[in-house]
Amino acid sequence: MKQPFTASSSSSSLIRKARLSPYLFTLLAFIVFVAILYGEDFVCLLGQLDPNLDRLATRSEKRWEKLPFSIGKTPDGCDLFSGRWVWDDSTRPLYEESECPYIQPQLTCQEHGRPDKDYQYWRWQPHGCDLPRFNATLMLETLRGKKMMFVGDSLNRGQYISMVCLLHKLIPEGQKSMETFDSLTVFTAKVTQGSFEDETKDIIELSTEDAYRMAMKSMLRWARKNMDRKKTRVFFTSMSPSHAK
What we know:
Order of helices and strands: HHHEEHHEEH
Strand content: 5-15%
Number of helices: 6
Structural class: mainly alpha
Distance between the termini: 106 Å
Mean pLDDT: 72
Strand order of the largest sheet: 1-2
Low-confidence stretches: 43-47, 59-70
Number of strands: 4
Shape: extended
Largest sheet: 2 strands, antiparallel
């Protein structure tokens, strides 16, 4: 025969439940801690199991990606970095070598006898969308009252000269100039003022080895500070030994 339910048995049951609550709280706290600590790893694992998750995340990030200021707008979701080179003899080349006086003599291929011109007729075509034609007027208007600097080696110099060749035809003669100050090359449209025009220049000349050592240390410091070495792999490519010959 069952014993009648009494107030004492009820109170003992509540006490047992109360004793279980600290364990339950500890378990919940541990679950929350693991979720916060390893949440990204779980997301990466799910992304590997279901590739659609990665595509959705990438699509949402690209939706907020800022577009280049020299070509106008492109369709939403257009991946400018996924595509191929296509032949285009109707809109290329954007400028002729003979029309741009700012190209260095060692880069004037046609003047030095290069017989073919096919390399001028290739353009980049993204998959799934069209890249608008370069708009020199839009770029000049966007840069009005501003300064744009290219910092780097001969590759950056080539990009810089190519940009100048794309823009200079729209600037009237007498309102543009190109000057070289030691390692600085300045293209001026109308009036540009900057620290490179100061009479007193705080510049220390270094040997090639010392300058290269400083650049390598600076690059390594930046990579350690800004990149997750567990998730990102960094490749460094040095200058070709025959570059300066």
